[in-house]
Amino acid sequence: MKKKIVNVILSVAVVTSMMFTVTACGSKDNDKAPAESAAVTNTVEDAANTDTEGTAQTDTANADTEDTANADTEDTAQTDTANANAEGGMTVEEWVSSEEAAQYVEVLNTTIGAMSNGMMTTEFEGEGNTLSMVFVLSAEALGTDGSDLTDEQKSEMETQMQQQFDGLKDQFQPMRDELKETIGISDLVVQIVYRTSNGTELFRHEL
Fold it and tell me: How far apart (Å, rounded) are the C-alpha atoms in residues 168 and 172?
């Protein structure tokens, strides 16, 4: 891969990441709604309320036990709700399959297609707490679909892309941060990946 092509590819990716951040922020303003507060309604009444005064001590003990159990239940429910809110209510895989992600991909590919003359597309992949933004390079862009690349050629490409990426990596940080906030997973790992059209991986780096 010629260095000029590497520069173009990474430049497109940087512009794409910046555009993604703007798009995500605009979408968030329209789509985000205040989370509904979680409440646990106690529908268990103290059965001892209808008892005689002679059972008051037993009633009090039962009520205390019920209050403790209900408090524990409420705490657990609130914790679960908080965790769900903190995680955006979905896993990375679920977000990748969501309508929101599909809309981003559509916009990104429209932009990338115009900038690269249709030589590059992008997609999201998710596994565990890792989200990968994958750029797929066409055979026209590389002069090969990747099937005939030797290990030496792939190593050379990776080295060239690493050198260029090192000078641009800070410009990817806003996209990484926006994705973490959008999906709602604080320990989300975001990667940028480049592949040939036949799936041969050329470069991968954590943002």
Answer: 7
